Amino acid sequence: MAEPEQRLLMLIDDEPAQGRLITALAGREGWRTVIVNESEKAIAMLGTRQGMQLSAIILDQGVPGDEACDLIAELKERRPALPILMLTASTSPQLAVEAMRAGATDYLVKPVAPDRLMQALRNATTRETPRDELTPLTEKMPADLDFDAMVGTAPPFRDALAKAAKAARGHGPVLIEGESGTGKEMLIRAMVGASPRARAAFRMINAGAVPASSLDSVLFGHEKGAFAGAFEQQVGALQSCDGGTLVLDEIDRLPVDVQDRLITVMETNCVKPLGSQYGYKVDIRIISASNLPLADLVATGHFREDLLRLVSRTEIELPPLRERIGDISALTRHFLNRIGEQPGLRPLGVTNEALNLLAAFDWPGNVRQLQAVLFRAAVFCDGDALTAEDFPQVREIVGETSACEPMRESAGVQLYCDDGNLRPLEDIEADVIRLAIGHYRGRMTEVARRLGIGRSTLYRKLSDLGIDNAA
Q1: pTM surpassing 0.70?
Q2: How many helices and strands in the chain, by DSSP H and E?
Q3: Residue that is last in its domain, among 258, 286, 317
């Protein structure tokens, strides 16, 4: 990556407030920002001495409007190697396709989270590894909201789904851990949709995206005059979700003082807004998500042990994609089917050689990154099926030799050990039960009927599997 003083960002934007925000955020990463408010000025700047020093461009679609893709194409024609990020309020997949075909490196939907913006800038200007098709294009397709859309047969993944499906029927706190991009948000929304609180209030707060100074008000609320700048009362998320579900994403990033207040709420079921003389009783289910193992943060003193105990009555761990390589084939075909339904795109197949290549990559961005890579490849594919040639950056990273190794397909339930011998019957049986619970979305009567066993037998086996603690 270039040294911070060498990184100059051009922001094409006519909204002063947004310009100040992006300038401040980019400054944290060592960027210097120059703002232009017209398309013509942006084009003219490319030919100046300052313009030759640019490392990236952020373009707000609101400036050129319907001609945003034309402006991107012209900017790319003049400076082909310059990354361009388009910022827009639109969630249209058609616009995403057109912007990428015009030459956009990434596509950010407003309001964009600070971490998402800074990560996009890092990805756009990282030269150590090929970047273009590995950029996280998470806004392109709407997320599925039920367990049926959670594709995969790897035992650790099905175990996580089985726990989630059973926990969805309860009311107790749930903690979901897993690396970024493993599908935590999708799993949470599936749980909420299958829960008794599905029609009640629901909010998702990303602790990492909210300024630390605002978290107290966002979560607990405040009274008018509680502090300087509190010109009116604000109802916090914990109070507004009474009777429903509150999701705390990136709970590992909660400041310690906020952790203390959350402990009090969870122990007393009472929320006291800042500046209030009294509290409010609430009935709320808290589902937490963390990219990092909270137990490790407890050991280093960055997370309260008593809060971990409170939020993890049911604990679910989503495995990274590199630990479920056998699922890549099914995930690839699933995503290609969904991508083919988007405006401007069409259904595509995928060759075995391409699948072998995808299986050889270790996917640090996990399932979200796989989806982004497939989306980008589909946009530029001229044939009827994706081949290894459609993933040049992945091929460059993994090398020709690894790409030629055949992928080990997952048969749903693994029958053999790595040494070639059959697995123990009880282990195979456990995997079958996990698959059934995930497939029938935690409906235990249906699971027992399909497996041909009684409910009492099923629950005994669930206890043996260690997934009988969902509340």
Answers
A1: no
A2: 19, 16
A3: 317
Query: In this structure, are 62 and 119 located in the same domain?
Result: yes
**DSSP code of 221?**
E
Residue 290: enclosing H or E segment and its boundaries?
Answer: strand 285-290
Helix (H/G/I), strand (E/B), else coil: 369: helix
Give the residue numbers spanning the domain of 189: 155-317
**pLDDT tens digits along 234-256:** 899 999 999 999 999 999 999 99
Residue with tokens 């003193």: 301
Q: Match 């194409």 to its residue by tokens.
A: 73
- Whether cis (ω within 30° of 0) applies to the bond prior to 93 is no
Same structural domain, 56 and 111: yes
Contact 464, 159 (CB under 8 A): no
Bond prior to 111 in cis (omega within 30° of 0): yes
Same domain, 175 and 111: no
183 lies in the same domain as 61: no
CB 188 within 8 A of CB 303: no
Same domain, residue pair 124 and 179? no
What CA–CA distance (Å, rounded) separates 393 from 55?
A: 20
| Greater model confidence, 139 or 266 | 266
SS percent in the chain: helix, strand, coil, step 5:
50, 15, 40
* DSSP 8-state assignment for residue 318: P
Q: Contact, 129 vs 39, CB < 8 A? A: no
Nearest to 222 by CA among 377, 231, 365: 231
